[in-house]
Amino acid sequence: MKITTKQLRRIIKEAQWGNFTGRAAPLDMPMRDSGPVPKDQLRKLADIFINDMGMTPEEVLQNSAFIEAGITDLAQLSEGKTRITKRQLRRIIREAITEAKDKPLQKLAKGVEERGTEGEFSKWCGEAGVTQACIDRAAKEGGKRAKQANPAVTFSKAKGGGPSLTYPKKKKK
User: Fold this and answer.
1) Taking the domains of the chain in order of start, what are their residue ranges?
2) DSSP 68-131
3) b vs e for 46-68, b when ≥16 Cβ sit within 10 Å of the residue's Cβ?
4) What is the mean pLDDT of residues 73-87?
5) pLDDT digit string (tens) for 5-30?
6) pTM of the model
7) Are 168 and 139 in contact (CB under 8 A)?
8) Which letter does DSSP use for residue 55 in this model?
9) Integer Cα distance of 41 and 171 in angstroms
C-alpha cells in the first residue's frame, strides 16, 4: 500500500489529537492532573484571593485546591518560623563562610596525599618534614624557597589536625 507524505502527516495528527474531520486541530486539550498543589503555591493563591480579589478566608477555603489539600484553616499554610539571636546568626554565617573557604584547600591537600607527591620543598626541609622551623628558615633565605613555603603553610591549615604553620610577617623598614 502506497501512502503520500500528506496522508502520513494527517494520520499522525489524527493519532495525536484524536479522530476529527476538517483541517484544524481541536482547541481544547484534555486537562492533566498534576497531583496536589504544594503549600507554597496554596499560600500564594490565598494571598491573591484575599488581597487582590477581595474574597473572605471562608470563601478561599471553599476553593477545590484547598479542599483537595485538606486545608481547613489558613493557619495551616503559615511557614514554620524559627527565632534566632544575632549571636546565633553570626555563628551560622561564620561557619558557612569558613566551610566554603576550607573545602577547596582540603580537597587539594587530600589529592596531594593520595597521589603521594612529595614536593621539592619537603625534601629541602629534610627528614623532619615541613615544620615551623623549616618555614622560618625558608622565609629568611628568601627567593625560591620563600615562594615554596607559602603553599606549605596553606596546606598545613587545610589538613587541620596538628598545629598550623604560619608564615613569618615581614618587618617594616
Assistant:
1) 36-76, 98-159
2) HHT--SGGGGS-------HHHHHHHHHHHHHHHHHHHHHHHHHHHHHHT---HHHHHH-TT-S-
3) beebeeeeebeeeebbebeebee
4) 80
5) 887 777 777 766 665 555 555 555 66
6) 0.32
7) yes
8) -
9) 61
